[in-house]
Write a structure and sequence with these properties.
With about 400 residues, the protein is α+β, with helices and mostly antiparallel strands. The chain contains twelve helices and 14 strands. The strands form five sheets. The protein has a five-stranded antiparallel sheet. Strand 5 and strand 6 form a beta hairpin. Helix 3 packs across helix 4 and helix 4 packs antiparallel against helix 5. The protein starts with about 25 loop residues before the first helix and ends with a strand.
Amino acid sequence: MAFYGKLDPAPVASERIPQLSSDQKTNVALFTRALEWDWLYNRDDEDLKRFIYPAIKQVVQFYCDFVVKKEDGKYWVYNSANNEGGWNINASMDMGYIRSTFRDFMEMAQRLNVDADLVAKCQEVLANLSPIPTSTNNPTTVSQLAALGFSHNKEIFVGGVESANPIQVKYYDLPWAAYISNNNQPVVMEGSVHPSELINIGSDPALLQIAKDTFDYGDYLNPHFNGGTLNGFSKSYTVAARIGVDADLLTDRFHKTLNMIYNSKKFYDSGASYENSGALESVNSMLLQNELNDISGGTFEMRLFPAWSKNVDAKFVTLRAKNAFRVSSELKNGKVLSAEIISDVGKSVTLVSPWANGIVVKDKNGITVPATRGTTRHTNELAYTFNTVVNGVYTITEAPAN
């Protein structure tokens, strides 16, 4: 049985206090992502009711109160920030975390059959929430970036509709560093890709392209001070895996960075060594992903070795996947040999086939389980959906050639 404690209630300030070094409202959503993941990966109703739901409900109540509805009918977020020492209007983290937290909260509330009024409010906010800021989707942003000398021929995610951060500007020696910097860690992608988990390999192609272009602009696999190492180490490689960066490049850079920093005194003395444990999720995401195929929800699409180089043999055993699955599989000589899925609560599986011939699914008694052939929502990959039972064990192998 897990124990999560309780959020400490505190009054919400009515205005930003200039002398504070930071005003990161985003932290309230970031710190509770782990509770959402507990529910998504384990689907334990008792933990949901006792610990997870009460905490997430407080986050939702805070944001429902904190957003501001403007004359155009859109909700905006003021007096918040992505980074220490700055402020943003419609901070990219806020705009992303609101979407993912509200989405997951509504599913939790419906599971428990509670708080219908708050669910309705979430739906109304989401329907009218301003978009996650990009370099082109708001005229104010376009104008301010141009005035700062920023020029880029592709749409990319930025820190906010308006952004200010003298620390970032000075440190990176870029006038527009409060919006985005190609020397920084992928902070501007935390609200869109990870930890928010809105965009992934199976997402809408237009959103995925913005994410890829942002990642390319930021050069986040470059093992510079903040990007591929130190604070960025726990972020860059997970983001790369989730958006489908070339697997050979990702694997190569990951290994090189590990070799470079492993014995580095600077690595351990920097204060980031604890943060770098987050790179474990990078490896997990390279081996297995089971992510929603739409920013507002949709279907979980499971992918085996989605960001792992086919030139490197690999095997994982009972790795947890969302919807309470434990998955095992092996890649050898560039080919997936088989997979096993243990279903803890009996959810259905949509598996992207690792084989062109399709799949065969059998239960623990060797009986063939019907699997419906289809394609993924956005990427047109061959996929199969099949039902499971609680504690069911399923073996997946390649279908015989026709």
